Amino acid sequence: MTDFWQTLNEQYPVTQYLDSNKTNYLMPLNQLGIIQIEGEEAGSFLQNLLTNDVNALAINQSQLNGFCSAKGRLLATFLLVRRADSFQLVLPKSMCDGLQQRLTMFKLRTKVTISNVSEKLSLVGLITNSEKHTDVILPQQDYQAAEDNNNLLLKLPSSMDRYLCIVQQDNLDTFCQQLLRQTWQLAVESSWQLLDIEQGLSTVVPETKEKFTPQQINFDLVGGVSFNKGCYPGQEVVARLHYLGKPSRRLFSASCSSDKLPTAGEEVTDQEGNILGHVAAAQFSSANNIKLLLSLKLAGSDKPMFTSGPTTVTDVQAFAAD
Asked: Which ranges constitute the DSSP H helices of 141-224?
């Protein structure tokens, strides 16, 4: 945690678990970073590499997107934001350096600049449960953005109204103090991942890099894949599975009771130890209850299953029927 957020935590009470009362929350998103792509050919460069239709984005609009290996396995997933003069990729900070290096391999003579700007820009999560939001300008539609004093606020899907804020580093203190003076409450950053899990939004992290095809984490079902945009690395594999086959694995929500979070990429097994799938994401929803996203074989999704420990997995539910 940065010194700035540590200081705020010492000054204000911090909410561990969000509730649905009429409270507004803000939280640090120190786990996230930003890769910035700029230059006159930035749009066409990304259009030829990513799973979604970059050309469909308007300024201050965003979309889920992914970058695959030639075998159709996801190297990274991220939120792609189109700005007036650049594109910004929001993803786990632990993935930024690797993705920057990988994208640079495809640059060749393309007129683009690829930068890790995670130290220049800060990310803040906002959750609004109150009809009185404050003076901050908030967009109304999912994946749309609004600019407010050089900050960008993006609305994202959630059971609560939530917004991803891209804030200039030198404006972070002013932005947060303004909200805290208006009775917003600080919340822990893990709350953000829990909201992603509830929405069925799985993010590739170093432990799950190249482990999943888009279909195995429902990335095609949440709007992260376009099947009409043309070629990109791994496109033939992803399209063949979509048009000519049926995924053998899909993403499921589940729960378990434990005081230790399962690790992303960890195996999920049946009673005999046979692998049924893998953990895609996990986060505490209360002191000993954990919400999970599991990429499971459809053929074994109704069996008793366990994470390492062993810990019994319960409440296994599919997000959508094929």
From this structure: 172-181, 190-199
CATH of range 200-318; options 2.40.110.10, 2.40.30.160, 3.40.30.10, 3.30.70.3280: 2.40.30.160
What mean pLDDT do residues 101-105 have? 96
Query: Given the DSSP bridges, would you call strands 185-187 and 25-28 parallel, antiparallel or unpaired?
Result: parallel
pLDDT at 130: 63
Side-chain-facing half-sphere of 121: CA atoms under 13 Å: 22
Instruction: Give the range among 30-39, 122-131, 193-202, 230-239 with minimum mean pLDDT.
Output: 122-131
Tally of CA atoms within 13 A in the half-sphere of 36 that contains its CB: 14
In this prediction, residue 26 has a pLDDT band, given cuts at 50, 70 and 90, of very high
Long-range contacts of range 144-150, CB-CB < 8 Å, 24 or more positions apart?
144/60, 144/61, 144/62, 145/60, 145/61, 145/62, 145/81, 146/60, 147/60, 149/175
| Mean pLDDT of the 40-65 span | 97
CATH of 1-199, one of 3.30.1360.120, 3.40.190.10, 2.30.40.10, 3.40.50.720: 3.30.1360.120
